[in-house]
Each structure stands twice: as structure tokens, then as C-alpha cells.
Amino acid sequence: MNMRDDRLAIRESSPAMSVRPKMAVHDLEIVSALRGVPALQALPQAVMTRLATGAIRLDLIRGESLFGAEAHCAGLYVVASGRIMLSVGSAEAGHKVIRLAEAGDILGLSATLLGLDTFASAEALVDSTVVLLTRETLLDRAARDVSLALALANIGARQSRNLAIDLESVSLQSGRERIVNYLLANAATGPAGPLTVLLSAKKSIIASRLSVTPEYFSRTLHELISAGAIAVNGRQIVILDAVRLRHSDHPA
Amino acid sequence: MNMRDDRLAIRESSPAMSVRPKMAVHDLEIVSALRGVPALQALPQAVMTRLATGAIRLDLIRGESLFGAEAHCAGLYVVASGRIMLSVGSAEAGHKVIRLAEAGDILGLSATLLGLDTFASAEALVDSTVVLLTRETLLDRAARDVSLALALANIGARQSRNLAIDLESVSLQSGRERIVNYLLANAATGPAGPLTVLLSAKKSIIASRLSVTPEYFSRTLHELISAGAIAVNGRQIVILDAVRLRHSDHPA
DNA sequence: CGAGCTGTTGATCTCAATCAATCTGAGTGG
DNA sequence: CCACTCAGATTGATTGAGATCAACAGCTCG
Questions:
Q1: Which of residues 64-103 of B touch A (CB under 8 A)?
Q2: pLDDT tens, per residue, chain A with 252 residues
Q3: What CATH number matches the domain at B174-246, 1.10.10.10, 1.20.1050.10, 3.40.640.10, 3.90.79.10?
Q4: Are strands A188-189 and A236-239 parallel, antiparallel or unpaired?
Q5: B170 interface with A at CB cutoff 8 Å
Q6: Helix/strand/coil for A208
Q7: Whole-prediction pTM
Q8: A119 at the B interface (CB within 8 A)?
Q9: B155: which chain A residues are within 8 Å (Cβ-Cβ)?
């Protein structure tokens, strides 16, 4: 059973068609990645298998770019593991992180469905694996299976809603409120007991995600520390007083 | 042929099932409204007809609310005519206009597909007609017709992209740039000859759409007038010097 | 003709960006 | 094992775009 060759990185440049003979294992990996997508979980096994056939696995190293902005989009990317940063903007206008995609998230949906160039650029923040469903494959399978087509619609709807939520927070909340809400929304009770947030990327990236500068993010965290609401240790933030934190959305 | 009763307003409260006997005419109107949606244009006639069956026509008067925020969403609303303002926010936090929907636009997609409450609220800015495809009808028809399911995915993708564009402009551009870009993007050469923008709503609403205050919008327009780039007469804005306007994105 | 919106203008304020030094700490090579 | 580096984070000083508050002007429509 040593077909472990399949686990080797297949870069974008190599279409991965060479592994066809060992497809069984290959496809199992792909299918399990696809099952990680909430919207695809309910798909019939047959549809899933057909979708996996022709899918391409890509392994990215930290810092590697998956696609640039205004670039041709090969198809739909399903994040199998790792973390991909989606950001918009240009060198002149600056950049803004619009999403941090993790396992089960999907990239390139609108470009793929609309047949347009990508709008954001995507870069791996840590070593990551993504599954590429080429536009042709995807449209072919979706045309055959209503359940898949509907799943795509659902993913689009979900993404729309999330973007609308972001747009609302940027427009209607202060930077401080966004930071506080982010902490509250991402807090989880870890094994250690206390309510904790583990930042999923460096602070400057989280700051951009929240539409504030790194400086302002830092200052605000330290104000929250002074207020006794949180404690910060690197990327780990412990919420000491959730009530106080919730009411810290106006300066001291 | 005087079945003009059909043209009477059918409010949300009356499910309109009473007009069933005259469906032929009713459905023709519905179909023509649906054909106004770019993503639905290519649908086979049969699918279109099936979709129209069970659709409900709603006539709204100026100022009337189609749905509120955090409300149950009856289904997909297709704007047949008029203009609907979609906005997010609350009384306390303020409001922000996220879209001005006109004929061919679609509202309530994400709420309908995800089975969630509405996120934004919708209000008619002028007397408007919309077609309601109830969630049940829509899901039923989409489950039967792949082309419809794919069309829904396309609409979702389009909305995502537009929201991402908005998010980018709010994050990366100055208020002045957004205003200038809005004027340039909405300029059309009218019959009168010169490049003209006709604001589709009162200035305060356009201002909110652009994420600036009415005061700032007004001031900026007047600065652009002083610069000789535009002339303003009520809701009509004539672009006198597109080149100068394009370069007016930094203060005088 | 006055009541009520919508828009304009003026004065002031403030949040958060920007600019500019440090500081810290995880690698890295010697 | 330690000095060096260099990116990331912090801290301080300053600035400014745009919001806010307030007053007023025009128009429209009863």
C-alpha cells in the first residue's frame, strides 16, 4: 500500500494528470477535503466522487501566492488545510485583507462563475493545501447535478452575507468597536479554562482585516489591558472580563 | 379584454392567489419582469413559465417598506420597476445604504437561500413593482431546473463581487475619491449632448451609499464646482471637464 | 404663507492615520 | 553560546480627513 508518492506536492505548473493511475487514493483525499466544506457536506456520494475526478491538489508553502489580483482564475479553490489570506487593493492604494480562509472555505467563486478575472489576491499564510476544481470541471458537474449547483448558490449567498456584515461594521462602527467585537466573536474556552482568542495571523494582518492600522490595533489592545479587560501574550489574548470588554467600546 | 383588475396593487398581506383564474395575463407580466434580470435572460422559456407560476406581484408606493432588517424573508424579490433602497444598520448605530436596486435587480437572495432572516431592510424610494418568488416556489423550481440553480449562483456571485468592490472603496479610497469615481462611473451622454449624471435618489441617500455624510457630499460637490469640473442643478450633475474631475481626487 | 423637508454653509472637534523612533524576540550564522 | 539581524510590535508626537453640531436658505405643497 505504499502509494505515498501521492502526498508529494503538486504545484500549479504540473496539471497532476500524471497521477491518474493511482486515482483511488488521490480522490479519497480530495473527497475528504470537499466534505470539509459545510455547503457540500450534504451532497450525494456519487456527485462528490464525480466532482473529485479531475480535481487538482495544490500544496503551497508559507508566503506562496495562490493567485494575484486581476488575474485569470483557473477555477474554484477549496481550502483543505492551512490558511489563505484574501486581500484587495494595489501597491499604490494599499492593501486590505478581506478574508482569512481556512479548511472548508472556498476561494474564487465569483471569478469562476462569472468568468471574470480575480478581484482579490490570495496568499498562503502558512503551508497550505487547496483543491482546485477547474472552471470547466465545475460547470460541467454543476450542469449535471442540481444539488451541486444549489450548493454553489448557497456558498455565494453565504459570502455575500459575510461581506455585507463587514461593510456594515466598517461603515457603522468605530475601530474600537470592531476590535472589541472581533475579540468577543472569536473567543473560545480553551482547555486552560479561561475565555481565549488565538489570533490566526500576525497582528498587522488582523488589523487590516478589521480595517485599522497596526498602530491603532496595538494601542487599543493596550488600552483594553489597562482597563483590565484582557491580557495579551503574543498572539494569545485572554479575556479577563467579558462584561467590561463589551462595554469598552468607547475610549477610557 | 378588460381584466385590468390585475393591475391593482396586491399587498404582501394578500397572497394574491385569488387571481389564479386570470393567470395567463398575470404570468405574462411576471415573465417579462423576470426577463429583465440579466442572469435569468438565458433561461429556457419552459423554466421561466414554471417560475412565473406561483410568483406574486407586489406594488409598493413611495416610502413603503418591503421588508425590515432581521425580519423573516418571504423569498426572492425581483424588482420589476421603480427603485428600492437596501440599507443596513439600526436606529442607534445609524443607517448605511448598501444598494439602490432598480428593474432587473434582485433582493433577499442570501436570506432566502440560507433560510435566515434578512440582514438589510428594503424600502421603495418611488412607486415600485416587485415580483416575489417565495422560498418554497424558488427552491422547488431550482431543484427541478439546473439552469435556474446556476442562475441563482451567478446572481450570488455578482452580488459578492459588488460588495467586495464596495468594501475595497470604503477601505482604500478617500471620501473624495469615492465621490469622484461615482460621478465618472455613472456619467452618461444624455440627449442634450454633455456628459451628465442624474442622481437616482436624494443627495443624502447617495451620500450614504458612498459612505460619507450629506454635509461632506455637499461640500465636495461645491469644491468640484469651484474647480470647474462639474455643474450641479438639483439632482442633475453635468461633467464639464472629465479630465480635471478625474484628477480632483485630492483636495484643492 | 408657514410648515417641513432637503440641502448648504460655517465652526469645531475627534478618531484614527501618519510619521518617526525604539523595542522585542525569533532565527541565523560564526 | 552569543552577537547580529530583521521583521514585527510598540510607543510617542503630530496631523488631518471627515464627522458633528448648529444655523440658515430654498423649495414645495398644503
A1: 88-89, 93-96, 98
A2: 444 333 334 444 344 444 444 455 677 889 999 999 999 999 999 999 999 998 999 999 999 999 999 999 999 999 999 999 999 999 888 999 999 999 999 999 999 999 999 999 999 999 999 999 999 999 999 999 999 999 999 999 999 999 999 999 999 999 999 999 999 999 998 666 789 999 999 999 999 999 999 999 999 999 999 999 999 999 999 999 999 999 987 766
A3: 1.10.10.10
A4: unpaired
A5: yes
A6: helix
A7: 0.90
A8: yes
A9: 156
